[in-house]
Write a structure and sequence with these properties.
2 copies of one chain form a homodimer.
Chain A: E1 15-18, E2 21-24, E3 27-30, E4 34-37, H1 45-55, E5 65-69, H2 74-84, E6 88-91, E7 103-108, E8 115-120, H3 122-125, E9 132-140, H4 144-155, E10 159-168, E11 176-181
Parallel strand pairs in A: 5-6, 5-9, 9-10, 10-11
Antiparallel strand pairs in A: 1-2, 3-4, 7-8
Helix pairs in contact in A: 1-2
Chain lengths: 186, 186
């Protein structure tokens, strides 16, 4: 019942298996690139749990806090926090009215020339201070967001232990620990 | 370690206990209203799990699908889906590039005179068709978002079974099943 049914069936759609759970990924047409496989953990609790379980051993030793970013990785970070016993901190992509002295960090986009802005609320930034922090994402592609998160760890006074993602999809040069590589187009 | 530490300690901060887990809620100053208690499930997996467990009996009988909206309710909806065995569908607040024939629904704001727009991707809307659907939120205040979600259920061809929230915080006239009422100011 929780199977991912987004978008049209495609005979060339890649299949992924994580933690014993298999999904045929939907693909979406992106410009002239062709069809790009899309991972959706939101709306699929079975797949989310399986990925979190498989990602547990990828968390670098000594990690004390997980850092993630809204929105797609949120259920995954929740599960990983629950299973690892490590707290997680979430960076937002919009300023919230309640934020106090947030850290603000731009993500340079490699493809569109526009930049995205990350917001880390001050009291949450304080939870990273003096801590060993691992960055957790659903998919790491160019690595631009991951690098902006790493900069936030540093600015908050934490120490980065590493990058953990369910999937790598692209040519980042960051040392990412991931479960499976996805094609950038099919 | 997962205790909610956002914002300053406040001697008047309300405490809530759900599913045996107690949190002192941070409060934020909002205009001339005073301080408003703030619930944050994001970043607190222990509190999220406790609330989801306590909310299970609130899901109306016959419900086949849960419908929620980003962002704050997302870990809660994931947990509730996992524990109930019911799939969940998530409405977005921004158009995503991959969406196909999304349903678009305005949320009239009662306070600011500006409206927010909800986006339900077509393939996800199809998962509501002919189904009994319960709306799940972290907090229901005015009920404006809840009503917009109900309209989306109807437009997608589903039937609404009811509204479920962890907290009610305000004067909505909707028949919401909730765990606890929060003050709108302290």
């Amino acid at each position: 019942m929780t199977q991912n049914t987004a978008n049209q069936p495609n005979p060339q759609a890649p299949r992924v298996t994580v933690g014993g759970v298999t999904r045929e990924l939907p693909t979406v047409r992106v410009g002239s690139v062709g069809r790009v496989p899309l991972v959706e953990f939101i709306g699929d609790s079975e797949f989310t749990k399986a990925a979190a379980g498989a990602m547990l051993p990828l968390i670098p030793p000594g990690t004390e806090v997980l850092l993630t970013v809204v929105t797609n990785a949120l259920p995954l970070a929740h599960e990983l926090s629950d299973r690892s016993g490590l707290p997680y901190v979430t960076v937002r992509k919009k300023r919230r009215t309640y934020m106090q002295d947030p850290l603000i960090q731009n993500v340079p986009s490699m493809t569109l020339g526009v930049s995205e802005t990350l917001w880390l609320d001050g009291p949450h930034a304080a939870r990273l201070r003096g801590k060993q922090v691992a960055i957790v994402q659903d998919v790491i592609a160019s690595g631009g967001t991951a690098q902006a998160l790493a900069r936030l760890v540093e600015r908050a006074g934490g120490t980065l232990t590493g990058y953990v993602a369910a999937f790598k999809q692209g040519d980042t040069t960051l040392p990412v620990a991931y479960l499976q590589e996805l094609p950038t187009s099919v």
